[in-house]
């Protein structure tokens, strides 16, 4: 029967060498479980069991190490174990063991993820909506990408992210947009930018519209007139090199409209210009 002629520690594993030139790498748990020591002899069937348990033990330790940094989904742990070349047959057993001990808990993960995305990060002041919140469609897609079953994702969203909460979060995000980079836009362009931003974050068009309506935005005529004049000067310099007359006027008018200015305001300004 094969005999162990060398048992040497190599970082997290032990290198076990048999006198038939067979070498396996095992965990400390494996050594304790099978009473491995230099000079011990084992039948081939026993060595096969030792090798299988070593793969299981190493994989489980890797899984626990990966989970120790932050909560992970079942799919993420499986991918991590595959990347570390743990045999598939052992991966299935490892996942069962980690789920049984609740180290892997996809329902709890989904609930925590949804709560975090509503607040904008996983640990913010209680009840406070933060700046990086997401809408339900974006949250659902991110959960599915992480391996959470779509039905489970929808279940948690329906439980935690009701209509009123969506409106509150979307309105808060819209307020932040108005107070920041979009503050100098004309009213029409401002509303379009906010709607685009909210839908890109996963809110529905209806929720985005309600959020914008909640802001009760009003046009600042002095601000819009100043903005329009600046854009008009730039657009005239650009197009007057190639066009004139009615063609120039139409191109200027359309360019200003694309910037979000109201056609009535545009026409009023353009009447003052001799094309």
- What's the count of strands? 3
- Percent of residues in helical segments? 55-70%
Radius of gyration: 32 Å
Question: What is the total number of structural domains?
Answer: 3
The proportion of strand residues reads 5-15%
Query: What is the number of helical segments per DSSP (H or I, 4+ residues)?
Result: 13
Strand and helix order: EEEHHHHHHHHHHHHH
Shape: elongated
Average residue-wise pLDDT: 88
In which order are the strands of the major sheet placed? 1-2-3
What structural class results from the helix and strand content? mainly alpha
Structure description:
With 275 residues, the protein is mainly alpha-helical. It folds into 3 domains: 4-101, Orthogonal Bundle (Arc Repressor Mutant, subunit A), CATH 1.10.10.10; 107-215, no CATH class; 221-270. The protein is built from 13 helices and 3 strands. The protein has a 3-stranded antiparallel sheet. The protein is elongated. The N and C termini lie far apart (102 Å). The model is unreliable at 122-127 (pLDDT under 50).
